[in-house]
User: What shape does this take?
Amino acid sequence: MSQRITILPETLTNKIAAGEVVERPASVIKELIENSLDAGATEISVEITAGGRRLIRVSDNGSGMSREDALLSLERHATSKIRVDSDLDKIMTLGFRGEALPSIASVSRFSLATREGGSPEGTEIIVEGGRVRDVRACGMAPGTVIAVEQIFFNLPPRLKFMKSAETETGHVADVIARMAVSRPDVAFSCTSDGRELLRLQRSDLQRRLAQVVGRESSQHLYPVKSEDDYAAITGFISAPALIRSGTQAIYTYINGRFIRDKVVQHAVMQAYRGVIDRGRYPVVALFIELPPGEVDVNVHPTKHEVRFRRQSVVHDAIQASVEGVLRSSPWLAAPAPSQHPTPNAATTQTYRERIAAAAQASLTLPPRPQYRTQPAERIVTASAAPLVSPPDTISVSEPVVSFQPEQTPPEPAGYFSSLSIIGQFHSEYILCQSDCELVVIDQHAASERVAYQLLKQQSQSGGIESQRLLFPETVELSFSEVAVAARFSPELAGIGFELEPFGGTTILVSAVPRLAVDHDPILLIRDILADLERFGTSAAFNDALEGLLSRIACHSVIRGPHPLESRQIKELLRRMDQTDFAASCPHGRPVSHVVTLAELQKIFKRT
Ligand code: ADP
Ligand code: MG
Assistant: This one.
């Protein structure tokens, strides 16, 4: 009988393992920094050349290793971090698989120099493509220095997958930033081709975040802190004004380990639903602490993914803690001027400009110099001495609003209705005029906002208005979507949908929300069920409600250019006046934008 099966030599198995752990220079750096942090380092410096393709060097001031340990560390499955089976259930270190060093050493020219604190000298080990070439004593400061040269020199297919030096450098910086956010108590630095890429001093989380996400962005961050018996969640989340187009600024950590997890991300985005636009992402740094037995990090060699024992509990805890901050935050009460240009919000500057313009026109203004210190007097004098000469449309009773927000009555009703309509631009924007302002309204965003508000009011007072379809329609779904439809059937009726099982994977739709009846309600139902399914069976319908209403609102308005008659524009403006723009809105997109006369004059160099 022939024997065709052999056990592979270790150099080859290491190379195979490297395929999983070592994807690119950034993944090498991630593994090496994890080791440095596990070794208790307080200073970690990284050096790369050619995006790490030529050289990666990571130095730390951690515990270092003895000569014996240093040699062992290069063996597969050699680790100091776990010993027995049961240790797997309570991993508190970043590493535990004992795979990184041998894997990296098998696909590069590798050197490890390390010295324990109490030892008179260090040990240097030179490895080439997984084979130890030399072991010698060396002089060095306590700690460890690992150099990885010519990564993938013996793995040509991998080499081909590497991107340009700039791209790889970008990945390296991202990886360091992620780890640096998790450990503000550790100093990090990185040079690329001799130039300093990052220098992060030891500090606290807020300052570290400012260094990583940018100082200006960091001013829009709000602290999160919630704790129960099960999970503790801390960190910072951004105001809706601070958004990114991808998830790159969402830093989430489970027990100190950076993870990219669908459940966690979904929980965060769910909390932001109704606050920021779809396809936009917040800036978030969230640290979720769970009992170690509640989370399995041994899912993938890179340890970016985890599995939760009680997934929905974790999901809901994260969502609740983020929502808690979002709901009680200042932007809801005082929307940013650029987002909600209501008369008083948009125009602090405008009024100053008006006054300046008026002064330029050598008008006799009421005694002004005191107004900053005596606002009350200004109210009286200003309204008592209205301006008469050009620009004669200036109403001086308004300006006081912006100087004295706390004492003024709520903004006058009917701002939008009071605008005079100029017309429609590109069948997408409504142009209006008010005094010295050109007001541009995004008709789609505005309609959606109005619809959302209406739906919210209806849902708070009894239920969403529903409309029966003339001919009930059938919809084909997946099994799990049918199950969701059945499970939430009474709740779905409350938001205007009448659905019943029709056998197999088909449901029968006999009524939909009235607002959405003209706009492909079947697509809406698919979206709604997909939302509910994604949201998970554990979650209460009510938690998803805002998102669902936002979904219906989105489906109730016409996308893309659409000519409007003047009566339709008037009606929209009227409805906008009834809409509370300060409350959370389906999308954080601005609805209108004000261009001041002064801005135009500047453009045309008239000033
Ligand atoms: P793991 O981190 O999963 O244990 P590695 O292959 O990354 O596996 O490292 C093997 C072992 O080498 C570690 O368990 C640790 O004892 C030691 N080691 C690696 N890097 C360092 C370092 N920078 N400082 C001190 N010890 C280290
Ligand atoms: Mg490791």
Remarks:
- The longest strand covers residues 466-476.
- The pocket of magnesium ion (ligand 2) is lined by residues 31, 34-35, 95, 100 (CB under 6 Å).
